Amino acid sequence: MLVSSVRRILHIDMDAFYASVEQRDKPELRGLPVAVGGSPEHRGVVAAASYEARAFGVRSAISMARAVRLCPSLVIVRPDFARYKAASDAVFAIFRAVTPLVEPLSLDEAYLDVTDNAWGEALGRTVAQRLKAQIRAATGLTASAGVAPNKFLAKVASAWQKPDGLTVIAPERVERFLHKLPVDALWGVGPVTARRLRERGIERLVDVRAVEPAVLREAVGSHADWLRQLAAGIDERPVVPNRSAKSSGCENTFSEDLTELSQIRVEVDEMARNGAAWLARRALTCRTVTIKVRYSDFTTITRSHSQAPSTRNPDDLAARAVALLERTEAGRRPVRLLGVSVHNLVDLSEGRDEGPALPLFDSNNADEQ
Q: What string of pLDDT tens digits covers the 369 residues of the chain?
């Protein structure tokens, strides 16, 4: 196993960001289970949960109604994106004072390449410690940091000791660290893909290296080579500063072709809701949802639907994505791959959108049953 560079990459992730801002600004919320999001009576979704709420199983992207069932004492707070953006701006100003190589992933997380830095610090650990201290002093908030030779390992490391954690994976420790990781630590391996891998006996990240290439391709399709590289601790991607996302999506290649329209609808619905959760984490909305369908003969089509005003309501996006299947031959032709993506993104915290704004976390549908 080779580590291909001696870069010092940091992944810094603010701890329970929206909820932490609320607890910082409202002392009466400190120590309480807090969820930021919409009303449970109007299909609200959890955008962020405090660590007290997470102890009950409350997490982002689940319905607020389910969150209240898990934690009856949950305190629900409507989001205030202006305050979250102000806190984010303060954090990113600290990052950019240290290195110009800052790649934002959302309001509350970023990659930093600190191989060369304004402080002249030789150790990534020291840079991370100083950044964490400055963030706390400037904002009153805590952040967790991962330090590693590449982006993949740094992101895994930042989640290792949350909250307020600092995990360093030195080049000589990479192999030892990789042996600790389950397969779903791999980039892009969600619950569905993880289940497919485990069905084939691929339980740990290191199992990805040992399995026959054909078995891995059957499970994850064209992503097989990329996952095998990550499983070896190799990630050559540079930190790209000032990159703004123009779209986001996910897709699944199925080990067996899908023939039942009902199952295809379930898969599309789930992917669309994942897209809505991605938008919520980044304080964005979208005007366009697109589905991708690849049939068993590898013919691939896309279908899109756009509307204003923009939204990130999971029920709306899921319904629009599923409706697009009517413009395909899914259910009549075997389907090998499905994908859902969101486009024409809008940052409502900057006041840009067309048409009257819809509620960010609530829909106008009937109460959730």
A: 443 348 999 999 999 999 999 999 999 999 999 999 888 887 778 889 999 999 999 988 788 999 999 999 999 999 998 899 999 999 999 999 999 999 998 889 999 999 999 999 999 999 999 999 999 999 999 999 999 999 999 999 999 899 999 999 999 999 998 988 898 888 778 777 888 899 999 998 888 988 898 888 888 887 888 888 998 889 999 998 866 667 788 888 887 889 999 999 999 998 999 899 888 878 889 999 999 999 988 888 999 998 988 999 999 999 999 999 999 999 999 999 999 999 989 886 554 443 333 333 333 232 222
Q: Are strands 34-37 and 75-77 parallel, antiparallel or unpaired?
A: parallel
CATH code of domain 181-231: 1.10.150.20
Cβ(11)–Cβ(154) below 8 Å: yes
- Catalytically active residues, by annotation: 109
Give the C-alpha separation, 179 to 190, whole Å: 19
β-pairing, 300-311 vs 285-295, is antiparallel
Concatenated DSSP letters for 7-44?
A: --EEEEEETTHHHHHHHHH-GGGTTS-EEEE--GGGT-
**1-177 has which fold?**
Alpha-Beta Plaits (3.30.70)
- Phi/psi of residue 335, nearest 5 degrees: -110, 125
What the block records as the tokens of 4 is 């291909």
Domain 247-350 has CATH 3.20.20.150: no
